[in-house]
Every structure is written in structure tokens, then in C-alpha cells.
Model the fold of this input.
Amino acid sequence: MRSVAMRHAVAAAALACASLASVGAHAALFEDDEARRAILDLRQRVEAVREATNQRLTDENGQLRRSLLDLQSQIEAMRGDLARMTGQNEQLTRTLSEMQQKQTDVDDRLKKSEPSTVAVDGREFTADPKEKAEFDAALGIFRGGQFAQAQTAFAGFVKSHPQSGYNPSALFWLGNAQYATRNYNEAIANFRSMLSLAPDHAKAPEAVLSIANCQIELKDTRAARRTLEDLTKAYPQSEAAQAGRERLARLK
Done:
């Protein structure tokens, strides 16, 4: 009876152990499921965070790209405006330069046409540019030894500018050109016109001496002597008067 009871006891103990092992196994299995669920839940949370982050980054990147595109468009627009403004400034600069050049040209033309003060043979007077140019041209012809052409040039000048301050000098050189071409009577007439117009002219003594020279060439010794005597009296300190005295001595 005791052995049977012991077997029952052992069997009961074995069953109890088996029950405990089953309970432990079941508990372990339950713990594994909880861990898996926790892991899955964590993974889902991580995935959700990742997706949310990616979406946010995508949205932010999209916004950034749009902002960059807008900024680029603004920059291009500004470049276009700057290019137009640069072109306008260049055009304005060219226009201003052209206007300044035109103004300079107008000023130059006005200066060329405006009378100015000139000095000839110690005399100052006002003359317009045309007068000066014509007188200088005629004098250049004379100095070039073209006496016939100089005679025409100076005669034309006196006729064209009867009131010109150049006239005393023009008459003097006209007389010299006529003397050179042996037009002695015409030369005498123009030298006398010059003396009548400007008796105090710097070349007046030379004009008187030239009249005497013309008279000598015309063989009018008496008239030449009177002219030389007048020269020494009117302009005693001049070089022409000194030359006149020497010629007067030879005429006697």
C-alpha cells in the first residue's frame, strides 16, 4: 500500500513538475510575443517618424527649390533691368557726347565768325576772321614773290573791306607789289592813300621813301628830291629818313 502511495506521490510530483514546466514555457512564449509586439510597435513608430521626416524634408526641399527658382527669376529680372539701364545709360552718354560735340562745333563756328582784336604793324583793331584770312593770304602771296598775284589780292581786299583796320597795311603792300611790277604811278597813288589814311602808321616813313623811289624810276628827279626832303622833315629819326638823306645826297 505504501509503494502504491509512493508511486502516486511520484506521479503527482511528476505531473506537477510537468505542469510547472508548461506554465514556464507558456510564460516564456508570452514574453517573446510581447517583445515582438514591442519591437514591431517600435519599428512602426520609427517608420512613421522616418516617413514624417522624409515628407517634411521633401516639403522643405520643394519649398526651398521654389524659393530658389523665385530668387533666380528675380535675379534674371534684375539682370534684365540692369542690362536695359546700362543700355539706356550708354545711349544717354552717347547722346550727351554728341550734344557736347555739336555745341563745341557751334562754339567753334561762332568763334571763327566773331570779330576779334588783331595787331598789325603796331596797330590794334577789331577784324572778323574773313578779313584776317584774306589779308594773311595776300601777304603770303607777296612774300612768296608772286607780285602780280599779290597786287590783285591786295586790291581786291581794299575794295571788299573799305573800312577795315587792315587797309593802311594793305595799301602799303599793294604799292610795293605795284612797284615790283613797275606800275609806278599806281604805286605812288596807293602809297599816298595810305599816308592820308594813317600818317602815323609804322610804315609811313617807308611809304614816303617808296614814293621817292617810284619818282626816281619815272625820271622825275625834282619830285623825288622834294619827297625825300619831306621824308627827312616828317620822320627825321626813322631808318627811312636816313636812307632818304643818302639818296638825296646822290641826287644833288
